[in-house]
Write a structure and sequence with these properties.
The protein has about 475 residues and is mainly α. Helix content is about 50%, strand content about 10%. A 3-stranded antiparallel beta sheet has the order 3-8-7, with no helix packed on it.
Length: about 475
């Protein structure tokens, strides 16, 4: 990293060091630099850019970064140090905690170099790709109704919160460019994608250096039930034929509870936000942080990115109203998993629904235990599920192969403006629509828009792939059932 950007980063790291931010594994240790003992800043193109790399072998559960409370940017600390801000917010006490932090952040940005937080503010991204920032074209590019509804809701929520907070921004006499909806989107996106959970403020707190960690999904979804019994035909045949951790620690090394798999949290005893290695790392490995279990749509909504291989991704298909009344599980448990298999809850619900009403009470315990009820019942479930997936895919105006082709074209969109693109008419229409809507857009804004467009296309492709995998799974199950 060179030039002004490198100089800004160096000043930020020096500022962070003076605040006591440290990657020393010793809970009371100090060092001449906030990074270097356990991690260093590195570039990971496949993970979106800047991240943290291990400078030595790290052990799962080991403390790798400590950020003192005084270094956390929270509403409390910003308000307590700015009487004008406190007075303005006191006149408008109907704002949510997140809105308050947004206002405080924009107010701090307004101070420029005079802000005590200036070295940190210079490190924040200048734009984000969260759903709330999507244009109507980019929203429609998602194609799937649930995703479109989620994106439109996010945009509407952002606009409403901005309008509610605008009077406060006006009282503060903030620069006009910091009172616009785009500025509000920047602040709210910063808070959504970069804050850490703290017990004393639901808005969370911004955590210098701690927000350099990139995301890794949990190794497994703790809420996902074992589906092996529910889908194993051989197990069904058998039943018919039968007629029926290391806790060691040292005084100096702070170790997280291995059973909790804690990546990070505020440590009252150390008065610091502490981050722990989620697994063993070798020197040079990227050290990752798990924010929690998210689908790709949720990652896009709250963080502005998606994962190419997300083990927690899901597809949801619309169900008959009667099915929900039969289900004892929450609606968000009725999904198709990344590998194309219906969730335990969805499969159990469909099996009970496919049973004649007069027999449901007698087989309810079988359905809810994850066992097949009968061959005929399972055939009905698989056929219904397969048709539902096919209907969703048919409602989309592009095929999966076309989506893949479009992703390659978007990657070269700036080279395609003056070149002829050979593709299907639907792809040509989508490209033409993008170019028309961005014909008067500057280079930087067009790049940002093409980035969001690409995210929408990639998201819909991966969602369709789950549905396609489900169709394959159902077809294979039906083939196995036909041999019984």
């Amino acid at each position: 990293m060179e030039g002004e950007e490198g100089a800004d980063l160096a000043r930020f790291l020096q500022w962070a060091t003076t605040l006591g931010i440290s990657d020393s594994p010793n809970s009371t240790g100090t060092s001449s630099a906030c990074l270097g003992l356990s991690m260093r800043i590195s570039h990971f193109p496949e993970a979106g850019g800047r991240g943290l790399a291990a400078t030595r072998a790290l052990t799962k559960g080991e403390l790798v970064l400590r950020v003192p409370k005084a270094a956390l940017m929270t509403s409390d600390c910003l308000i307590s140090s700015d009487r004008k801000l406190a007075t303005a917010l006191g006149k408008f006490n109907c704002l949510s905690p997140t809105q308050v932090l947004c206002v405080a952040l924009l107010n701090e940005m307004n101070k420029g170099r005079s802000s005590w937080w200036y070295p940190y503010l210079k490190q924040l991204p200048r734009s984000y790709d969260l759903l709330a920032s999507f244009t109507q074209f980019e929203i429609e590019a998602l194609q799937i109704d649930d995703a479109i509804w989620t994106a439109e809701k996010a945009v509407h929520k952002g606009k409403m919160e901005w309008k509610e907070a605008s009077p406060v921004l006006s009282v503060l006499n903030i620069k006009p460019q910091l009172t616009t909806f785009n500025a509000w989107l920047w602040a709210s996106s910063t808070i959504s994608s970069r804050t850490m959970h703290i017990s004393w403020d639901t808005a969370g707190g911004l955590c210098p250096v701690g927000d350099f960690f990139n995301y890794a999904p949990p190794e497994e979804d703790p809420h996902q039930l074992d589906e092996s019994e529910a889908t194993d035909i051989d197990s069904f045949l058998t039943s018919v034929n039968k007629g029926e951790k290391d806790d060691s620690s040292t005084e100096d090394l702070v170790v997280a509870n291995p059973d909790k798999l804690t990546d990070g949290g505020y440590h009252e005893g150390l008065a610091s936000y502490c981050f722990y290695a989620k697994r063993n790392y070798e020197r040079g490995d990227q050290v990752l942080l798990s924010y929690g279990t998210y689908t790709n749509l949720e990652l896009l909504e709250h963080y502005g990115f998606i994962l190419q291989d997300n083990p927690n991704d899901k597809a949801f298909i619309s169900l008959e109203s009667e099915m929900y009344s039969l289900c004892s599980w929450p609606k968000d448990s009725l999904y198709i998993s990344q590998d194309g298999k219906p969730s335990f809850a969805l499969l159990s619900t469909l099996r009970l629904w496919a049973t004649p009403v007069s027999k449901r009470r007698s087989v309810k315990h079988i359905a809810y235990s994850g066992h097949l009820i009968s061959v005929e019942n399972e055939v009905a479930v698989m056929e219904w599920t397969m048709k539902k997936c096919q209907d969703v895919l048919s409602s989309c105006w592009t095929l999966m192969d076309e989506d893949m082709q479009l992703l390659h074209i978007i990657d070269k969109i700036h080279d395609c403006n003056g070149e002829e693109v050979t593709s299907s008419q639907t792809i040509l229409d989508e490209i033409g629509s993008f170019l028309a809507k961005n014909s008067v857009t500057s280079g930087a804004k067009k790049t940002r828009s093409s980035s969001r467009w690409r995210l929408a296309v990639e998201w819909r492709y991966r969602y369709k792939r789950i549905l396609s995998e489900c169709i394959t799974h159902c077809a294979k199950t039906l083939d196995n059932l036909s041999k019984l």
